[in-house]
């Protein structure tokens, strides 16, 4: 099998646009300097790349101020800052869901032990969707934070983050959204959605390299968010205390400027294509996948059937195969690269009824997947399932 089709974009996107590779090569060969650590041209150019990346992110998510965008090393890094930087006092209550990734579950549970934080997990139905009214009903007198994943990395279920944001705003609660599977895939508007903090990776839907990401912090909210580390920023070097202004308050140490140079071009590619156009194409891919895998004996496709309520992340199972076995057959016989297992989201698999089966096998799409690739993948699943039935 020489043909190989990459269906693991929920983990990291591949391939990247050619401009991403070119920008990283140019930075490595021609710039090389650390932003804010010199007054010479290369250091200034490095700083401008980072600044332009902030402006492009702000444009993409409708942030009012580019300096509200903190550069991080991935979405996990941003979520850790948001959760541990905000929840610093003992005895608070957090509302989250059963669909969250371990990047939310694990820091919350660490704080549960350390600060006696109480956690309420809102249930999801078998398709992975959460009822926002359940969030409202879970609010207590000591509730401090609502934390909600925008789209499941397991089954693609798309939550109503605007409705949850309206609840948070009405009740005066902080609101954190994990946009790991939606940034770069569909339109985001942090102002319309009443988001206080939005964490997302650079290496998934934004088409940048690994080691990049960002955390948006609503202007003014930084007074409630403590830094997790202090150090050199290239600014206010005359004082031994951390700067209190954005974004330097949270960006100690040299940036991953090489990665950010690639991310900057991934963002330019997305803005040039248009986020609405990219979303329309992903919906078309989803529709073709669902149509070609429907009502096949022995084959189960998890998540919403309505393309308006999902992104291009599909978990599947085939009777007679555990997830790893199915992934191996898909690769060895069809050249399809998928991810089996629990996908760092154990509660999501419990909600779907797949935890005790070892999880599922996941297909996740990106902008360089073709309609023909989708049909080929669906036909492979049909062939495997039908062979088992016989």
Could you describe the 3D structure shown?
The chain has a seven-stranded mixed beta sheet, sandwiched between helices. The radius of gyration is 21 Å and the shape is globular. It has helices at 18-31, 41-61, 75-86, 102-115, 132-138, 161-171, 257-273, 275-293, 323-334, 346-352, 371-389, and strands at 5-6, 69-72, 93-97, 118-122, 143-149, 174-178, 197-201, 213-217, 299-301, 313-318, 336-337, 339-341, 360-364. The chain has 390 residues and is an alpha/beta fold. The chain has eleven helices and 13 strands. Helix 4 links the parallel strand 3 and strand 4. It folds into two domains: 5-15 and 274-389, Aspartate Aminotransferase, domain 1, CATH 3.90.1150.10; 18-273, Aspartate Aminotransferase, domain 2 (3-Layer(aba) Sandwich). The longest helix is centred in the first third of the chain and has 21 residues, at 41-61.
